[in-house]
Amino acid sequence: MCREGNEQSDVSGVTAEGAAWLASAGTYPRSTLAYWEERPDAPLVLPCGYAFDVVSVTAMFGRRMLDRLWEEGPGSGPVAEYRGRTLLFAAPGTAQRLPSLLHWEEWGDRGREGGRTGAIPPLLCHGTGDAVTVPALLCGDRPEPTGARWLVAPDTRHPWLPGPEIVLWAAVRAARAAVRISIFPPAEQGAKVYDVSRRR
Question: Is residue 49 part of a domain?
Fold first, then answer.
C-alpha cells in the first residue's frame, strides 16, 4: 500500500498472506515480518530453494515470457522487476532442473553447431544456496532507482509456482514470438494487468 495523505491505496498488491509466504523463505520468518512492519518500504534479501526458486531474465524477454504465461498458459506465480531484470518465482527445484532442460532442447547449448543459440537469453537460475533481493511490500513516495517493483505480487500463503517445464515452455514461446517481431516499434503501451484469478 502507498499512503497518499490520510488515504491508503493498494499499489504493490502484496497482501499480508503474501508477505507471510515471502517471509517463510528465511530462517526467521517472524523477524522478517517484524522488520517489514517497521520498514514496509524496504527491499529485502531472501534465500531461495525452500519456499521458491527464482529465474532471472532480461526485462524485455521476461515480459514476453510473462505475456505467454498469461495469454496462452496457466498464469504465473509472483513476478518482480529488479535492476533491469525480471524475477520469475518458480517451484523449488526449478533452478537445478531448468538448465539441463534447456541443454536437452538445445536452447541453452552455445557450443553445438546448429543449436538455437541466441534465441533465449541466459536464464539465471537461483536455487538452494542462493539469495535474491525482493522489492518492498509498500511503494515509496518516488520510484526506486533500482526499478524494483512487483509485476505479479504475492497474494496468498500458498501461491501456485511454475515448475521447470512450464518456465521452459514460456521461454521457448517468447523466443519464437521475438523472431516474428516487426522492425517497427510498437505503439506506446501502458502497464499490463494480469488476472491472478486465472492461476491454477
Answer: yes
* Residue 185 placed within a domain: no
Q: What is the rounded distance in angstroms from the CA atom of residue 167 to the CA atom of residue 66?
A: 10
Enter the C-alpha cell of residue 28. Answer: 526467521
**Bridge partners of residue 87, in order along the sequence:** 56, 80
* Closest alpha carbon to 154 in 199, 124, 92: 199
Helix, strand, or coil (residue 52) = coil
Domain ranges, residue 76: 2-180
Smallest CA-to-CA distance from 197 within 4, 42, 13, 10 is with 13
Q: Write down the pTM of the prediction.
A: 0.79
Give residue 115's pLDDT band: very low, low, confident or very high (50, 70, 90): very low
Question: C-alpha grid cell for residue 56?
Answer: 532471472
Would you give the end-to-end CA distance of the chain in angstroms?
26
- Give 196's DSSP letter: G
Average pLDDT over residues 44-53: 96
Across the chain, what does the average pLDDT equal? 82
